[in-house]
């Protein structure tokens, strides 16, 4: 009888939806359960599950994800992926009040492979804009220092959902592991929150100038990595 009903959903379609969605998203959309109104954006994050000893593996592609900042922190994450879709954040760099040239020098010195072997460097799209005073922009300055960065415009919520899926998909599996070296990113995943009053007040998390920047860098990785095989080219 159920198979002939108008609302019948094949089990294969249900499983596919579970694997594409975050656990929170699946429970809200498919099981009609109300999402939690707790302030934590990534309630799925569990250091006991998502933090472990991961190091650079020469056989896997290496990516870098950058969020620009000066007074607020500048962030760079070094990330690898394997053939099964697992994601490993192997290191981080978080620093304030330095020039792009200084950041670039550190990034190049601490990248564990030759620049030509980096599969992609993804960044904040806002970095492509030109400063009214200097006449240049952060992406241009990175390029001048030997780091070519690409970007794709996206909504904040798109990146948040991709991180949630990596932490815990609808079927309960996770594919994101952070090195214990990534202290600031671990802290950000635990502390990134919605404004007081909960997620029901606004869809967007609080931009506190501290925890949002490592999360932004991680978002840029997830929204860009799918197209990394054919990076967008920019002229300066």
Strand order of the largest sheet: 4-1-2-3-5
Gyration radius from CA atoms, angstroms? 19 Å
Task: Tell me the total number of β-strands.
Answer: 5
Q: What do we call the CATH topology?
A: Nucleotidyltransferase, domain 5
On the 0 to 100 scale, the average pLDDT is: 84
Largest sheet: 5 strands, mixed
Q: Domains counted in the coordinates: how many?
A: 1
Q: Which features would summarize this protein structure in a list?
A:
236 residues, Nucleotidyltransferase, domain 5, 8 helices, 31% helix, alpha/beta
Overall description:
The chain is an alpha/beta fold and 236 residues long. The chain has one domain: Nucleotidyltransferase, domain 5, CATH 3.30.420. The chain is 31% helix and 14% strand. Strands 4-1-2-3-5 form a 5-stranded mixed beta sheet. A hairpin with a 5-residue loop joins strand 2 and strand 3. Helix 6 packs across helix 8 and helix 7 packs across helix 8.
Summarize the structure.
The protein is α/β, with parallel strands linked by helices and 236 residues long. The protein is built from eight helices and five strands. It has a five-stranded mixed sheet.
Helices and strands in order, then pairings?
Elements: H1 11-20, H2 23-29, H3 47-50, E1 62-67, E2 74-81, E3 87-95, H4 100-110, E4 118-123, H5 138-144, H6 156-167, E5 176-178, H7 183-191, H8 212-224
Parallel strand pairs: 1-4, 3-5
Antiparallel strand pairs: 1-2, 2-3
